[in-house]
Amino acid sequence: MKREEALNILKKYVRDDKILKHCIATGAIMRKLASELKEDVDRWEVIGILHDIDYEIVNRDMNRHGVEGEKILLEEGVDEEIARIVGRHNYHLIEGGIESYNTPVEIALQCADNLSGLIVACALVKGRKLSEVSVNTIRKKFKEKSFAAGSKRENIMLVENLNIPLERAFELALEGMLEVKDELGLE
Ligand SMILES: [Fe+2]
């Protein structure tokens, strides 16, 4: 599946610009993590783009988040493995929580999903200028627990289980998001 196709499917179910941008950012980070691990970059980006497809449909019901997304993707004819990964990404519903993710793609998705929000928040502090965010900025803000508190630090740190140091993940994520900064409405 191509990036464009994934975006088209996403836009059928998600209207909120903020969520669309979050999905694009998560996809961009997934692409970089895939490249670092010599995995399929297009496929990982698509997974990032599609991961919150049910966000508006479940309307904050975290007991349905992911489950509904999996159903939608299967109906849309997206391959089963991608649908399953999306279905399992809501760690609140996974027995054993975040520690139970053991495939690289699922671990990377936890990292990308949470790191995207942290980096967007960093850009907002810099007057929407993503180009002024550095790895240093991200490192500092990562340590400030009250900053972008919704970005779960433990989920981001899972990336180290893939032998990617946290600092390297910051660098990759920033590079990835810079590549799509126009789509993210950032400078
Ligand atoms: Fe997400």
Please characterize this protein's 3D structure:
This protein has 187 residues and is an all-alpha fold. It has one domain: Orthogonal Bundle (Hypothetical protein af1432). It is built from ten helices and no strands. Helix 7 packs across helix 10. The longest helix is centred in the middle third of the chain and has 22 residues. It is globular and about 40 Å long. The model has no long low-confidence stretch (mean pLDDT 97). The structure holds fe (ii) ion. The site of fe (ii) ion has 5 residues, from helix 2.
Overall mean pLDDT stands at 97
CATH topology term: Hypothetical protein af1432
What is the succession of H and E elements? HHHHHHHHHH
Shape: globular
Number of domains: 1
Q: Sheet bearing the most strands, described? A: none
Which residues sit in consecutive blocks of at least 5 with pLDDT less than 50?
none
Strand content: under 5%
Q: Strand tally, please?
A: 0
Classification by helices and strands: mainly alpha
CA-to-CA gap between the ends?
29 Å
CATH class group: Mainly Alpha
Q: What is the C-alpha radius of gyration, as a whole number of Å?
A: 15 Å
Which ligands are bound? fe (ii) ion
CATH architecture: Orthogonal Bundle
Helical stretch tally: 10
> In percent, how helical is the residue content?
55-70%
